[in-house]
Amino acid sequence: MCIAGEFIYQNFINQRIGGEGVPMSYVNDIIEQVIKRNPNEPEFHQAIKEVLPSIEPFIEENREIKNIGILERFVEPESQIIFRVSWVDDNGKAQVNRGFRVQFNSSIGPYKGGLRFHPTVNIGIMKFLAFEQILKNSLTGLPMGGAKGGSDFDPKGKSDGEVMRFCQSFMTELFRHIGADTDVPAGDIGVGGREIGYLFGQYKRLKNEFTGVLTGKGIEWGGSLIRPEATGYGATYFAEEMLSTRSESFQGKTVCISGSGNVAQYATEKVTQLGGKVVTSSDSNGFIYDPKGIDDEKLKFIMDLKNVKRGRIKDYAEKFGVEYFEEKRPWIIKCDIAMPCATQNEINEDEAKMLVKNGCMAVSEGANMPSTPEAVEVFLKEKILYGPGKAANAGGVATSGLEMTQNSMRLPWSREEVDTRLHSIMKNIHATCVKYGSKEDGFINYVDGANIGGFVKVANAMIAQGVV
Ligand code: NDP
Ligand code: 2IT
To answer: CA dihedral in degrees (291, 369, 85, 161; nearest 10)?
Structure first.
């Protein structure tokens, strides 16, 4: 039953390079089982359907992998926790939300992944995000398993006191399932520095322990410099690497960015530093188009608007006298590079075609699964540079990994040290994608590259650890 990892890897690569057709049946069976066993979870099905065909040759080539059920186990979370979160609002009324933690795969390290607070959160969304996280974390080269959690709680319009009481109630159940060596949550949509603070405070109170149980902590109490910037910076570094394969750079390029939260803000900052011009910013109500570019001053306004006042992006249009497109997404604006940094399925087929038609040469995904399968098909068919989220946005969790390292050492690193490590991790992830995703004609399929590059290590660890 024990198969040497290198042997499997070599066969696998031979097959990829040979490019021979392989029977689809086993993978199709697994996809069908996933759909049957997890009904009404379209985002989870979408993620599975995107990943499994990429890794199929690895599976087909190695019968024993089938015998030990690698794929069956790979698509089934190790544990799914769903719990009630009761809290009292400012009017003294009891409110009830649902809390989740999906601990998907721990073969290469403790579970790791963010928490999302958004009204659309459900178990299917949690599973898709946790599944993607397994491969993303593997790509970082750091020892982290895959997980995701969150709640259908909507922080919009809530007071700080309400957010605090919600977080305390959420952690009062979650604390028994996590730990610095078990499962280390962090932020995602709707969970930033404020929420991590309240969650950490409650964990510490319940456990009487000050440990690195969460990442994204404040800098005075165990956080890492550059963690807030890391996802946006990382997605920009990844785009820079992709551009360099075609002797291009950000210098003088027009860039469309969606979202105006954590990832979008720091992607805007880094793109501008590298000589690009970011012309859009958005939220769930619409987007602004600033043809002169969102410079550092204007970005400061967005940061204050979103992080402090918690207002709407429409205010930017009023403040700077630019156009606002209600209920629209930025992809109708002509650009050289697109960076979706808001949410899943925010670029559809028509929008992908529009981007390509307008001359877009690269898409680097700051968000998780922001392009629909049809949109991805357009990007691959047109052979533009397309960096899927699990590779392009891995800088966030990678820097969370660096925060864990600093917590274990009880020694903080400087800004430069963390940024240098982040930059080098993003370059390594790009190199991994090139290694596993290069085709005979020289085209780099980053979807295959990221899926295969992430999977090989996890599969080898699962083989080594037996059927558990
Ligand atoms: P934030 O909560 O800071 O910002 C989210 C932004 O996206 C807001 O502008 C929000 O608008 C917009 N948005 C959210 N949901 C929707 C929606 N359904 N339709 C349109 N716009 C929407 O989250 P982050 O910046 O942290 O996360 C953005 C993306 O990046 C997510 O996909 C996340 O999973 C991914 N990601 C985040 C990482 C991190 O470290 N934070 C790491 C890797 C990936 P509004 O204010 O109106 O809700
Ligand atoms: O999707 C993601 O990678 C994140 N939200 C960050 C996870 C983390 O543990 O830092």
So the answer is: -20
How many angstroms is it from 186 CA to the middle of ligand 2? 6
Asked whether residue 455 carries a pLDDT value surpassing 60, the answer given is: yes
Distance, CA of 138 to CA of 108 (rounded, Å): 8
- Tell me, what CATH number does 94's domain have? 3.40.50.10860
Same domain, 264 and 294: yes
Q: Which pLDDT band holds residue 384 (cuts at 50, 70, 90)?
A: very high
Instruction: Give the Cα separation of 462 and 296 in Å (integer).
Output: 47
Q: Are 233 and 422 in contact (CB under 8 A)?
A: yes
Task: Please tell me the residue having the least CA distance from ligand 2 atom 1.
Answer: 114
Short-list 458, 376, 436, 460, CA closest to 47: 376
If asked whether residues 309 and 387 sit together in one domain, one would say yes
- Give the pLDDT confidence of 166-195 residue by residue, as tens digits: 999 999 999 999 999 999 999 999 999 999
Q: Which residues contact 277 (CB under 8 A, 6 or more apart)?
A: 252, 253, 254, 255, 293
Active-site residues: which are they?
Answer: 148
Ligand sitting nearest the alpha carbon of 149 = 2
